[in-house]
Amino acid sequence: MNDKKKLDRRGFLGFATWAIGGIIGAGFGIPAIAYIIAPAMRKEEEQEWIRLGSASKVELGTPTLFKTKIEKQTGWITNEEEVSVYVLTENGRDFVAMSNICTHLGCRVRWISDQDVFFCPCHNAGFAKNGDVASGPPPRPLDQYQVKEEDGQLFVLGG
Ligand code: FES
After folding, report:
1. Which residues lie below 8 Å from residue 147, measured CB to CB, with a gap of 6+?
2. How far apart are CA 88 and CA 41, in angstroms?
3. In this structure, are residues 46 and 159 in contact, taking their beta carbons and an 8 Å threshold?
4. How far, in Å, is the centroid of ligand 1 from the Cα of 85?
5. What is the C-alpha to C-alpha distance for residues 76 and 1, in angstroms, rounded to an integer?
6. 82 C-alpha to ligand 1 centroid (Å)
């Protein structure tokens, strides 16, 4: 009987040791694991407003190129990426922001002002100044960004 009590006490101490060790291990281990895998589990990209520059730079009726750099994080790796956006306004208040990436195979288009066209040199495509396809193989107009003006600065939503 005395031996049985000793075993019960010994069993309880063993259980308590394991339980306390488990709690301490979980207390340190779970945050450590979360810290390590969090960047890999993060959503692909969360969009944010990217500042382009002063709205006064945009000439009425002429697509104006803005270039800026954004940081993109993929897992543990952070890259700096250049973003180029053409902004068009006809009245100085309403802005259209267009990607400079051709919708055919992804070459960069450039605005040719004396021909009034965005030109893609890869397969001789043309886009009108509002981004509509004017000629060539692109399947759709230039992609557009959501754009806003705040305190004279232009921002596009991207990432
Ligand atoms: S990539 Fe622009 S026309 Fe083909």
Report:
1. 87, 95, 96, 97, 154, 155, 156, 157
2. 38
3. yes
4. 17
5. 61
6. 20
Report the separation in Å between the CA atom of 63 and the middle of ligand 1, taken as the mean of its atom positions: 19
- Position 114 scores a pLDDT of 95
pLDDT of 36 reads: 74
Return d(Cα 100, Cα 158) in angstroms, integer. Answer: 14
For ligand 1, whether the C-beta of 138 sits within 6 Å is: yes
pLDDT of 2 reads 54
Mean pLDDT, contiguous 10-residue spans, the chain (159 residues): 64 85 86 75 74 95 94 82 94 96 98 97 97 98 96 91
Query: Which residue out of 99, 102, 103, 143 has the highest number of ligand 1 atoms within 8 Å of its CB and is therefore the one to mutate?
Result: 102
Give the full edge-to-edge strand order of the sheet including 133-135. 110-112, 117-120, 125-127, 133-135
Ligand 1 atom having least distance to the Cα of 120: 2
Q: Across-strand partners of 95?
A: 89
